[in-house]
Structure formats: structure tokens, C-alpha cells
Design a protein that fits this description.
Blueprint (H helix, E strand, L loop, with lengths): L26 H49 L3 H41 L2 H46 L3 H6 L2
Helix pairs in contact: 1-2, 2-3
Length: 178
Amino acid sequence: MESNPYTSPSANLFGSASGTTTEGVPQEAITHLQRTKPWVRLIGVFLWIGVVLMLLSGVAIGVASVLGLGAAAEGGAGAQQAMMMIAMGVVYGVMSLLYIYPAVKIWKYGTFIGKLVQSRSSEDLVAALDQQRAFWKFVGILFLISIVIYFVVIVGVIAFGAMFAGASGGMGDLLKQP
């Protein structure tokens, strides 16, 4: 077979002598992933525990606030507090739902590490890394959303404080009051 100098260059990206992509994953890569699997499982278990505890807390707060709302309706006081507790129960429920997706992804990542150890196939490696990518993408998005929320809250607190200080005649008056 002749070599054509006008063809585009090619490289074997998978390191096999035959140029095929069917060789197994290097043992060193499998060992590194295998050593992370217990930590991945630990984080997965903690995420699932967090989901369950937040969901139970949301339900408990909701039930307690509904019972408090009934008592407040009879007595006439505390209805606003009961409504705020119901809202807090709903927030806990939504937050527990937000934790389910990363819990599933990190658990699947650990599962694919186990499959990779058994099969040494590049398909299992790619599947494991894809689960890890999805986990970190979700965590990154939540992190960015948290930064935006913190910024909005800080600006809101500063604006509220300035508005409150302006309405009360300035900070000097606040400091003079007993």
C-alpha cells in the first residue's frame, strides 16, 4: 500500500497499535475511578438522606401550620404566621425535589464505575463520565443561581435599609432613640 502525500494527516487518538478503538480502558484509569467510588457513594447516600429529611420536614411543617391555622381561625390570631409556615413547608418540599436530580446522577456515576471495573469497556467509561458531567453541570447552575439570589438579597437589604433610614429621618435619629 502506497502512502499518499496529499491526504490529510491522521493520528491514533486511542493509543492502540492496530488503529482500532475497541481496546479496553487502561488499568490506571480504572484504579483511580475505583478508588473514588466509595466517596461517590457516600455523597450519594448523604444526598438521598437530605432529600428524605427535607421532604419530611416540609410535610411536618405543612401539617403543623395547617393545624395552627385551624387553631388561629378559632382564636383569631396567628393566621399570618401559619400561612408563612405553610410557605416554608412548600419551600422545603421544592428544595427536596431539587436535590433528587444530583442524587440520581451521582448514584449512576458510581454504578457506571462499578460496571467499568467489570467490563473495562470505553463505553462504560464514557457513560460514567457523562453522569459525572451532568452532576457537575447541575451543581454549577445551582451555584450561579445562588450567587444571583445572594446579590439580589444584598441589594434589597441595602435598599430597604436606605429607605428605612430615609423614612425615619436618617441614621442619626436611629442612633439617638433609646
